[in-house]
Amino acid sequence: MSRIARLAAALATLALAACTAVSPGDERAVATHFESLRDRPPELVMFLRRMPKGGDLHNHLSGAIYAESLIRWAAEDGLCLIVVSNTFVPPPCDPGAGKPPVAEHARSSSAYNALIDALSTRNYTQGSRSGHDQFFATFGRFGAATEKRAGDMLAEVATRAAGQNIAYLELMLSPRTWEARPLGARIGWDGNAADTLAKLREAGLADSVPRASQDIDAAEARLRAVLGCGATPQPPACAVTIRYIAQISRTLPAAEVFAQTALAFELVRREKRIVGLNFVQPEDDRTALADYSAQMRMIRDLSALMPEVPVSLHAGELWLGLVPPEALRFHIREAVEVAGARRIGHGVAIAFEDGAEQLLAEMARRNVLVEINLTSNDVILDVRGAQHPLPLYQRHGVPVALSTDDEGVSRIDLSNEYRRAVETYRLSYGEIKAMVRNSLTYSFLTGESLWRDPREARPIAACAGDPPGTVAPSAPCAAFLAASEKAALQWRLETDFAAFERSVVAAPRR
């Protein structure tokens, strides 16, 4: 059986359950029911957890892990704890010097709970430090617990995603990008991207690519082993599609930032599971602020040499008072217009940008998606409610999708972000369904989109006669879906939505 025939059969099976009693009236009925849940928060939570959610496009793998797992792994791996700073470190341990084994220290319930607070933003308001400082401090504290646990981390995140009907994850991680730092320091950076890239390649930059692929192979093998993906039936988490975003540390010297960025471009070109790149670490950091424009030009120049590489950038994760007003005026614009970012992470400071109205119009025209992280913006920037620009982006036609950022550190999940958005901004069912669709439409999955226009749920010509989610695809549509990872997952989402809406309509009302 050909690949197209196999895909057509699989999609026909998915569509079979949705093709009975499905009509536009189902969506209208669900929207009406959804409105009735606004004053019943527990039932709203139940609804949103069951609702298909497409993908989470802004998710840092290390920050997605809950402190309870980190403590357990640290204990199992024999790590020690520097008590005064609540930091995991490798052995040898020395209890007398304030460095006991984690397993020993965490036996006390009070110590265990204090560790959870130190490794997350739980109860941070009870302390003297800001949410911003507490958030970013956690990574240095728990880092040692994650070094040998990539597969376990994937298993935790995939399990949590499957439990909320999330089908796709783009996870930010550092696939050997740290190996480029010494190369960059040795080669240097003079502002000439083509020449520096050539020197880095000659020095062995691409040698990191196969090692990164081996790391992913090992992590995914561990994922399958932890989840038991060979079982029949296999756990739902095994069906979650996972891709990776290569992250670059923006707070390092320019030569090291360029080398990491160059390696990230090579990784995306050569390793199909790494689908894009992003700059991470605090945007308000001293070096990140000073070098911001130069870093955007680095991406621009590398994109000119390797134009097939998708870019998403943390930009505008800033607020007045955190940085001087001058730093708020250009970050999103340069990410879009100079670096050519297809997606913007956070984008909170959009209102402070010079020519904000024009920039919003340009983002809408270019279909630059904004990855909205409501809880993260609240904790880190103290921006919430009417201050947040989510409604501003919507009014200007800029596509948006909800994401978690660091769900473990923030003690949330994606369902919570939908609940928060609905309750804060009174979003309709149609609006949140559009956000869900956006999470796949603007993903960096390979292949063309199912939709002819990202803003309208109208299929491309090959599938125009096959309303997604209601019928099995015709031969031309099946051939199109077989050639596009993105479209195939979008089709699956529509099938899931049809089944979900039919179940909501059929459910008895209390």
Task: List the defining traits of the structure above.
510 residues, alpha/beta, TIM Barrel, 3 domains, 4-stranded parallel beta sheet, 11% strand, globular
Structural summary, described in words:
Helix 2 crosses helix 23 and helix 9 packs across helix 12. The protein has 510 residues and is of the alpha/beta class. The strands form four sheets. A four-stranded parallel β-sheet has the order 1-4-5-6. A four-stranded parallel β-sheet has the order 7-8-9-10. It is globular. The protein is 50% helix and 11% strand. The protein starts with a helix and ends with a helix. The protein folds into three domains: 99 residues, no CATH class; 53 residues, no CATH class; 276 residues, TIM Barrel (Alpha-Beta Barrel).
Brief summary:
This protein is of the alpha/beta class and 510 residues long. The protein is built from 23 helices and twelve strands.
Beta-strand fraction estimate: 5-15%
How far apart the termini lie comes to 48 Å
The number of helical elements comes to: 23
Largest beta sheet: strand ordering: 1-4-5-6
CATH class of the largest domain: Alpha Beta
The outline comes out as globular
CATH topology of the largest domain: TIM Barrel
The name of the CATH superfamily of the largest domain reads Metal-dependent hydrolases
In the CATH hierarchy, the architecture of the largest domain is Alpha-Beta Barrel
Unreliable runs:
1-9, 12-22
Fraction of residues in helix: 40-55%
Characterize the main sheet.
Answer: 4 strands, parallel
